[in-house]
UniProtKB/TrEMBL annotation:
GO terms for cellular component: membrane. The keyword Nucleotide-binding does not apply. This is Cytochrome b/b6 N-terminal region profile domain-containing protein. Pfam families: Cytochrome_B (PF00033). Keywords: Membrane, Transmembrane, Transmembrane helix.
Amino acid sequence: MRRFLNERLALHALDYQVPRVTISVKYMLGGLTAFLLLVLTVTGLYLSQYYNPTPTGAHDSVLYLITRAPLGDWIRSLHFLSAGGVVVTVTAHLIYTFWRRAYKKPREVTWWAGVLLAAVIFLLIVTGTVLRYDQEGFEALAHFVAGGNLTGTFGRFFTDSFTPSTSLLSRIFGLHTSLLPLVLLALIGLHFWLIRHLGIHTDAGDGAGGAKTGVFRTHTTRLAGFGLVLFAVLGVLAVLVPEGIGFPPVAGVEITKPFWPVLWVYGLENVLGAWGMILGPSAIFLFLMVVPLLDRGADQTPGKHGWVGWLAVLLGILIVGLWAYGMFGEAREHVGM
């Protein structure tokens, strides 16, 4: 059977050499992110079969999914937990890649593709929150409307004036289940293609200067093992701590806090108002995109970023502080619901 599959699926193509150090977990963070995105895709496809993306039917369809659809409660909880997991892995991957300065020539485009991937994942998180369509989801929808109004023509898609033919909830559902996943798939393809052809960036201290003494098949086999363990942990957690849903939304009040990865934006909104949700993520995204242009020296020693590194540390401390402020501070009204 193994020979049959090797011949027909060209699995021998996975036997190209890679640095042996890539079998360590720190070099698998990107692969684990891709694995969790696969879990999110499969579970999301199942959830979409039961979801009614209309203001009058969304909340009831989620209740039906939880209470009556086969394995619906577990799959929805697994989807929710995997979303949190992918935030952890992609953030860790981004930080470790930044630390190793793996964005330097000739890998600038690889870095930019990764930053865009992280941005799309962030958008998937916030659009997915809307689809809950309980009070938290309704308030997230109100933030989209407020952001659309603040940004004028650029944000018109997120306002009711875009078209009277469909609700904004339906358009966000389409964004979450079609457009953003297509962009994500294209970026993943570009990211992996560049890694394959430019090679995996390794440090001089990572075993014989990153000598190519292993094969990629070993990397993928070990990655699959870690992925299955992670899936098992999330699957058990989905049983033990299932994700609930709040009451149907009530217009005119703003009393909830967002999903934990977005709490730092919520904290910034406490300071700057609704503009915080636009300025904060935009500033972080812009900084990450220009990092390869700011740190262009020949030296590639990990951690030796100079002032760029100190700026990154400052931004990291600011994000953690805002996250704590959003987490432990009182709930506030930001968009004048």
